[in-house]
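lol forgot to send this yesterday, sorry. struct tokens for the thing we talked abt
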């Protein structure tokens, strides 16, 4: 996203390296003339003027993510495949499979998150805060988001902040647009906004993912770190808990339809708040963080959720009903699609 002329921005920490390059406003630019692809390409050109300084062959990279509905996982897996091609030995996984202390054993750490309520989901933030010091280790962050105006750039900065707070040296930041998984949007009738992005990720998205991974590798080889800056965005003031509580307050019914439920446990496993009791078919509203993971992933359409008395339809059923298939070109991936 090209910076607005009236935008106030502030520079975030990043000055550990030999040369800095600014990664600002990396929005997808789904509409209008903003073209973040160009910005990324020019950053890569700028970096390529440096002579290679560090061999990355055999270096250990960790690509970890939180992902509820596969968008972020898919992006992470693609980035991991390209890093492998660049010579890294890569571990690519959901953050819940990684022990926080083991993070310091990697030479490069790349974290990915969806944007939820204009921010990094709190449980992923908490996990990253529990990671020990990773002094001067190259770190990068990316987010996936669901449409323009989702505070995606600032959320990517916030994710990178969590890694630089541990001493990490920033080497990359990017954002990738997808179809939004915020089920309430289509359930209350705003289907057009969702369908507008149902073609994503497309070839251009995968090319950007690959470019992002190559830029990280190049920055690491050349000992470069990146300055990055947040945009002035009013969503910074309503992000996270405030937005989440607003949504949760308007969920007037949330329960399990015992007649439909096959007790597969997908909802329980996906709930970051341990709010679901499968046996009784109840959800603890006080614990629920309105992430919609339960309703989005139930393959039996057994999660009852009503928002302002509209029945909320999950992402899984929405995709099925609208015949939406997300393709993964094999050439971009070294790991099979788990879903
Ligand atoms: C609870 C919830 C909140 C969301 N909030 C935002 C948001 O604030 N901004 C945005 O651009 N997208 C938002 N989205 C859309 C997701 O960020 C987007 O679809 C993302 O790619 C999902 O990634 P995942 O499949 O890895 O979970 C939200 C989705 C959910 C389920």
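and heres what i got for the seq, position by position
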């Amino acid at each position: 996203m090209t910076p607005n002329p009236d935008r106030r921005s502030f520079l975030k920490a990043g000055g550990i390296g030999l040369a800095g390059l600014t990664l600002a406003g990396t929005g997808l630019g789904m509409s209008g003339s903003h073209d973040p692809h160009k910005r990324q390409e020019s950053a890569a050109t700028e970096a390529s003027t440096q002579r290679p300084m560090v061999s990355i062959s055999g270096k250990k990279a960790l690509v970890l993510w939180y992902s509820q509905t596969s968008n972020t996982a898919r992006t992470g897996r693609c980035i991991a495949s390209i890093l492998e091609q660049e010579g890294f030995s890569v571990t690519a996984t959901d953050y819940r499979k990684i022990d926080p202390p083991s993070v310091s054993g990697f030479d490069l750490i790349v974290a990915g998150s969806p944007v939820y309520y204009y921010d990094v989901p709190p449980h992923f933030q908490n996990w990253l805060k529990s990671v020990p010091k990773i002094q001067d280790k190259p770190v990068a962050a990316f987010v996936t988001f669901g449409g323009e105006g989702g505070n995606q750039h600032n959320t990517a900065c916030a994710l990178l902040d969590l890694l630089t707070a541990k001493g990490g040296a920033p080497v990359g930041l990017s954002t990738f647009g997808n179809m939004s998984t915020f089920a309430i949007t289509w359930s209350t009738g705003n289907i057009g906004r969702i369908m507008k992005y149902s073609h994503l990720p497309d070839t251009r998205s995968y090319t950007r993912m690959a470019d992002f991974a190559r830029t990280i590798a190049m920055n690491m080889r050349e000992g470069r770190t990146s300055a990055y800056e947040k945009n002035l965005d009013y969503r910074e003031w309503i992000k996270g808990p405030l937005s989440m509580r607003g949504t949760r307050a308007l969920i007037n019914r949330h329960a399990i339809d015992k007649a439909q439920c096959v007790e597969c446990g997908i909802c329980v496993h996906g709930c970051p708040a341990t709010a679901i009791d499968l046996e009784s078919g109840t959800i603890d509203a006080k614990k629920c963080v309105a992430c919609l993971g339960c309703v989005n992933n139930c393959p039996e359409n057994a999660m009852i959720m009503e928002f302002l008395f509209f029945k909320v339809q999950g992402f899984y059923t929405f995709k099925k009903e609208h015949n939406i298939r997300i393709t993964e070109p094999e050439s971009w991936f070294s790991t099979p699609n788990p879903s």
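Residues 250-315 form a domain with the Alpha-Beta Plaits fold (CATH 3.30.70.20). anyway ping me if u want another try
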